[in-house]
């Protein structure tokens, strides 16, 4: 059993957005921002999972990476089966990888 306890709080959409924006400005997680605002000084608390604010990835990029990943899985699967790899497939994969190197 974890020694840490969790508190769940409901907030309005406006308050949530404000907390999200303010925590991003300070480059801390929302949980750490709330801890700072509450001025929690009793004992120690868990460090934030990450102090970096991440943005969502571009869906088009994720689609391309997924396509390349599928192609690489096909190659790996064929290599383990000792089957010759189609040169057309290799050229197609090469073109996809090179198109990402803008």
Question: Could you list some keywords that capture this structure?
Answer:
elongated, 102 residues, Mobilization protein, 2 domains, 4 helices, single chain, mainly alpha
Could you give the count of β-strands? Answer: 0
Radius of gyration: 23 Å
**What is the number of independent domains?**
2
Tell me the helix content: 55-70%
Number of helical elements = 4
How much of the polypeptide forms β-strand, as a percent range? under 5%
Q: Span from first to last CA?
A: 50 Å
Shape: elongated
Uncertain residue segments:
none
Averaged pLDDT, please?
79
| Helix and strand sequence | HHHH
User: Which class do the helix and strand fractions yield?
Assistant: mainly alpha
**Main sheet makeup:** none
Brief description of this entry?
The chain has 102 residues and is an all-alpha fold.
Describe the secondary structure blueprint for this structure.
Blueprint: H1 13-25, H2 30-38, H3 59-80, H4 87-99
């Amino acid at each position: 059993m974890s020694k840490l306890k969790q508190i769940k709080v409901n907030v309005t959409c406006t308050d949530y957005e404000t907390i999200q924006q303010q925590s991003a400005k300070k480059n801390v997680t929302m949980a750490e921002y709330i801890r700072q605002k509450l001025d929690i000084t009793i004992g120690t608390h868990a460090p934030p999972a990450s102090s970096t604010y991440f943005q969502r990835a571009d869906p088009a990029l994720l689609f391309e990476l997924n396509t390349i990943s599928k192609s690489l899985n096909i190659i790996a699967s064929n290599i383990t089966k000792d089957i010759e790899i189609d040169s057309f497939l290799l050229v197609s994969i090469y073109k996809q990888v090179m198109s990402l190197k803008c």
